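new request in #modeling-help
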Amino acid sequence: GDSVTQMEGPVTLSEEAFLTINCTYTATGYPSLFWYVQYPGEGLQLLLKATKADDKGSNKGFEATYRKETTSFHLEKGSVQVSDSAVYFCALRGAAGNKLTFGGGTRVLVKP
Amino acid sequence: NAGVTQTPKFQVLKTGQSMTLQCAQDMNHEYMSWYRQDPGMGLRLIHYSVGAGITDQGEVPNGYNVSRSTTEDFPLRLLSAAPSQTSVYFCASSGGRNNQPQHFGDGTRLSIL
């Protein structure tokens, strides 16, 4: 079945540092890929998405590129802020249906 | 625009009690789902529905029941609560097309004593 593996946290960074969160997936066909963010005490919010190979999703300074050859969708941000402290989830939706498969989540803590 | 609304936000139950977690969406979405979130395990799908009158099991359905009598509502029922069901529960909805993102509610934090 479908699966998503993302790096375990917590990841602790200083403000303005570069952030990378690795995400790899296993799926049949051509899934859509997503990054969701969860701020403390809140639900999940869609951060960005990519629906086909080589697509780049971007939002709020975050980027991720759908790499089919390496089955990866790594999240990057060039200069993080304290407000980026959150838990980040990589997810995929299979080619058939609407079900999402999530990775375990990566907690990011940005210190001033 | 309310989006996905979950009630209650917090609940404490005793083992063996029953309760219903409510979920409502006002976006006319066909697809709705329930997840549970446990530390280090991400979100796991409990049950889902592709439209009114249609439900199916997800990854961890045992101990939970659902029904979908209207497009707007998708309640999750715990028939006999167990401590293993202590978790944070999220409801989500999305439109019919495959590449539409899911919209999440703010969650219900449930503790079973």
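bot summary: Chain A is about 0% helix and 50% strand.
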